[in-house]
């Protein structure tokens, strides 16, 4: 009897510890299962998928620059498959760190038989010798990869995975979308997510284009769920994953990526999904504030700013 009771108490204690370390507290809780899943996926996505098809492991051929409505101008191979870069790699000097199982999920693009995209500086095309002795394509010094889960030309399923994988731009930098609208200004080197002080709203989060970031009240952080789907997303686009190192002034507590049922990946701040508003036409606009009594700007801690 005593043994059974002791075992039960131990189980309860373990449950309490797990709950205490879950994503968020009080209104800002998110599931331990979500946090664990995101944490497991973060480092290199080594087991993200089976090895790529042989076609995806071949030479890149003539590169192409393609405009993606969400990511911006990105680089693809001759077949239209998106090329990616990995944050733990280095460009100066070039060094590839994705090896073993990681390289099965993210096949390195072989060097050789590669031609610069139209308008791309050919001097940016290079190569690096990998640990196994093979040569890998580099763009602006960054080793280039494909993603095994990109099943068709134009897929960008690797964008933001683990907060470390990003589509390549023609200059080797991370692909990024030009600022929307023409009336505002965005400082050079604007972080992916940062903080702006507004006379009415106070400190609130903005994206790399200077656009206000919002939260949707029906969403939940426990479990981590976005209730904005279908037509809602046309007005309230999700904020794509942003590398934690590319943020400034916002909390890094439970800074996770949500895998949505529609296949998109969405950044969360303290486990809360975040969005921008199509009705904001230039940096500094806050036209989404209070819309429908459900959409509000986000504080640097991830909380709703309900001031109107």
Structure description:
The protein has 308 residues and is α+β, with helices and mostly antiparallel strands. It has 2 domains: 54-167, no CATH class; 193-305, no CATH class. The chain is built from 4 helices and 21 strands. The protein has helices at 2-20, 32-41, 101-105, 232-235; strands at residues 61-62, 64-68, 72-76, 84-86, 90-91, 94-95, 114-115, 125-129, 135-139, 142-143, 165-167, 193-198, 202-207, 214-216, 220-221, 224-225, 257-259, 265-269, 272-273, 295-298, 304-305. The strands form 9 sheets. Strands 8-9-10 form a 3-stranded antiparallel beta sheet, with no helix packed on it. A 3-stranded antiparallel beta sheet has the order 14-20-21, with no helix packed on it. A 3-stranded antiparallel beta sheet has the order 17-18-19, with no helix packed on it. A hairpin with a 3-residue loop joins strand 2 and strand 3 (72-76). The longest helix is centred in the N-terminal third of the chain and has 19 residues, at 2-20. It is elongated, with a radius of gyration of 21 Å.
């Amino acid at each position: 009897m005593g043994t059974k009771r002791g075992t039960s108490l131990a189980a309860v204690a373990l449950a309490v510890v797990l709950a205490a370390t879950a994503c968020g507290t009080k209104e800002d809780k998110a599931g331990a299962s979500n946090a664990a899943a995101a944490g497991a996926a973060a480092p290199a996505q080594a087991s993200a998928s089976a090895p790529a098809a042989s076609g995806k492991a071949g030479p890149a051929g003539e590169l192409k620059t393609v405009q993606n409505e969400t990511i911006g101008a990105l680089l693809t191979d001759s077949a239209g498959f998106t090329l990616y870069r990995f944050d733990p790699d280095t460009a100066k000097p070039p060094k590839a760190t994705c090896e073993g199982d990681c390289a099965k999920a993210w096949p390195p693009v072989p060097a050789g038989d590669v031609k610069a995209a139209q308008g791309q500086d050919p001097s940016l095309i290079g190569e690096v010798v990998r640990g196994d002795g093979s040569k890998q394509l580099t763009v602006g010094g960054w080793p280039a990869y494909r993603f095994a889960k990109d099943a068709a030309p134009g897929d960008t399923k690797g964008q933001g995975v683990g907060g470390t994988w990003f589509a390549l731009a023609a200059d080797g930098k991370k692909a990024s979308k030009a600022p929307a609208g023409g009336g505002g200004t965005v400082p050079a080197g604007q972080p992916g997510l940062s903080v702006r002080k507004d006379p009415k709203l106070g400190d609130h989060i903005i994206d790399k284009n200077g656009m206000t970031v919002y939260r949707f009240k029906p969403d939940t952080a426990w479990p981590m769920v976005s209730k904005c789907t279908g037509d809602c997303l046309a007005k309230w686009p999700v904020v794509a994953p942003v590398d934690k190192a590319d943020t400034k002034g916002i909390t890094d507590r439970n800074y996770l990526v949500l895998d949505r049922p529609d296949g998109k990946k969405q950044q969360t701040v303290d486990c809360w999904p975040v969005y921008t508003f199509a009705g904001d036409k230039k940096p500094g606009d806050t036209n989404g504030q209070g819309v429908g009594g459900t959409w509000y700007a986000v504080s640097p801690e991830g909380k709703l700013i309900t001031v109107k």
